[in-house]
Amino acid sequence: MSAEELIEEPVRRRLSWSNRLINGFCSQLAFGQLFLRYPDGGATLHRGRFPGASGTMEIREPLKMASRLLTRGEVGFGESFVEGYWSTPDLAALLEVLYDNLEHLGAGPRGMRWSRLWDRLTHRLRDNHRLNSRRNIAHHYDLGNDFYGCWLDASMTYSSAVFKDFENDSLKTAQERKYHRLLDALGAQPGEHILEIGCGWGGFAELAARRGLRVTGVTLSREQLVYARERLATAGLADRAEFRLQDYRDIQGQFDHAVSIEMMEAVGEAFWPVYYQTLRSLVRPGGRIALQVITINEDDFPIYRRQPDFVQLYIFPGGMLPTPERLQAEAASAGLLIRETAWFGLDYAETLRRWRRAFHAAEQEVVRLGYDARFRRMWDYYLAYCETGFKTGCIDLAQTLLEVPRQA
């Protein structure tokens, strides 16, 4: 039976309280449609007044899912997927329906007050002081180089690519284009010394070294440190790159330019001023700083700031996205000149789509590494959640070029 042949809301058959709660959450749809199937064989179709995406949800444990929605709200929706209480043939499409209807589903369950307070406390206790920063980075990046190697492209780059042609560019090509774009923006010349805060697995450093630059990269991930050092040694470029296990607040010296790719998000709001002041103090007058930063809409920031989301609680502890306005304000407060900003949100959506596809293709390798079904669903939800955020414009990606003023 097709979705169109089903009885639409209001449902004429008797529903359990759990099914009624789930249906109530979905009943305010304004855009697209959402098709729900229940374990007893029943189904309902919710249609919005306007065209939009179409999603399907197979509810396996209605009572448990309803309990999560009631007590944990939006975070509970993601948690219920992780626990296997529901599934879907197309997670990104389903989440797109929900993203498109965020304002209209706002009257749905927000979670109980004690639950929201607990999440705020959890997030607060992960504040990025020096000790917590190491723990927070290890939580995510020290899952293992073999794990990330299963689904990242050959450049081992875990940040958005910049595409010229979504259809024909390989991910590796698009990642290298991103690195070249950042270097070109700096105007870096052979022999100059670049600082990279948050060096990842060394992809940027290798390309910069091949262009005749010297690079000092810092990370708090031991796994990344080992990989990056071996990578540059294998490439015969070890004399042009130094990698340190070091907090950005402890760096000393002066550099010609600096790059920091998707690092501000991991700094934490309380330390944004320190991050920018550190960048300014480490780059010579007239030197440039290239940042790549994920941003969140200004209108969404107050709630996001007050109530941590799924990604902050489960994937990036201590993380916080700035708004575009805050990005500029922090740079200006540090006395940095803003030279240009470009936006690449759809490029990140495509990057995430390809990562998620590769993650699914590598499922058996991930299993062999010891990661269970619950972990795999958590990462599947995270990747789809972020992809949909960029696709719908709830979050965006900025490349910002800053300059340290020349001394008078």
TrEMBL record:
<dbReference type="GO" id="GO:0008168">
    <property type="term" value="F:methyltransferase activity"/>
</dbReference>
<keyword id="KW-0443">Lipid metabolism</keyword>
<keyword id="KW-0808">Transferase</keyword>
<comment type="similarity">
    <text>Belongs to the CFA/CMAS family.</text>
</comment>
<protein>
    <submittedName>
        <fullName>SAM-dependent methyltransferase</fullName>
    </submittedName>
</protein>
<dbReference type="GO" id="GO:0032259">
    <property type="term" value="P:methylation"/>
</dbReference>
<feature type="active site">
    <location>
        <position position="386"/>
    </location>
</feature>
<dbReference type="InterPro" id="IPR029063">
    <property type="entry name" value="SAM-dependent_MTases_sf"/>
</dbReference>
<dbReference type="InterPro" id="IPR003333">
    <property type="entry name" value="CMAS"/>
</dbReference>
<dbReference type="Pfam" id="PF02353">
    <property type="entry name" value="CMAS"/>
</dbReference>
<dbReference type="GO" id="GO:0008610">
    <property type="term" value="P:lipid biosynthetic process"/>
</dbReference>
<dbReference type="InterPro" id="IPR050723">
    <property type="entry name" value="CFA/CMAS"/>
</dbReference>
<keyword id="KW-0489">Methyltransferase</keyword>
<keyword id="KW-0949">S-adenosyl-L-methionine</keyword>
